[in-house]
Specification:
disordered C terminus, alpha+beta, 4-stranded antiparallel β-sheet, globular, 4 strands
Length: 146
């Protein structure tokens, strides 16, 4: 089993573990909803020969999180991502994150932690390369893209 990634977020220490593949797939499908509008804008700005290298505004995609996902989808993402996240206790050990206990009164902190869990689990898929070429390479890495 892989080790978790330790991160300090807003002065609290967390350990984020990789989400198992089947649960990651369910999250990935929800996250792709966030990419549809920025992808459409990238298509609108480029001719077809430039499209494979087009920059997609992932920041815009993340900023639309609340408008592109409904409450149940967002809660599902949070439950899965925090299921594989631990927080450091006062004694220095790590215990599973409890959303109600650990984020009560701290919604901004909760979203900061969520962002980090998503980056750790999905950054290689979404952010490693530019534009459609990156998406195509991630979907079918065995095919050489020209």
């Amino acid at each position: 089993m892989r080790e978790g990634t330790k991160k300090t977020i807003d002065e609290k220490k967390y350990e984020v573990w990789h989400v198992p593949p089947m649960e990651a797939a369910s999250i990935l499908m929800k996250l792709t909803k966030l990419l549809l509008e920025p992808l459409g804008k990238a298509i609108g700005k480029h001719n077809i020969s430039d499209l494979l290298n087009a920059d997609i505004d992932y920041g815009e995609a993340l900023a639309t999180l609340g408008t592109k996902l409904d409450e149940k989808e967002l809660q599902h993402i949070m439950r899965v991502m925090f299921k594989y996240t631990t927080i450091e206790t006062e004694s220095g050990g790590f215990i599973p994150v409890d959303i109600d206990r650990d984020f009560q009164g701290e919604p901004l902190h909760m979203f900061n932690v969520l962002r980090v869990t998503l980056e750790i689990n999905f950054s290689k898929f979404f952010f490693a390369t530019k534009g459609l070429k990156g998406i195509v390479q991630k979907i079918s890495p065995s095919e050489k893209q020209t």
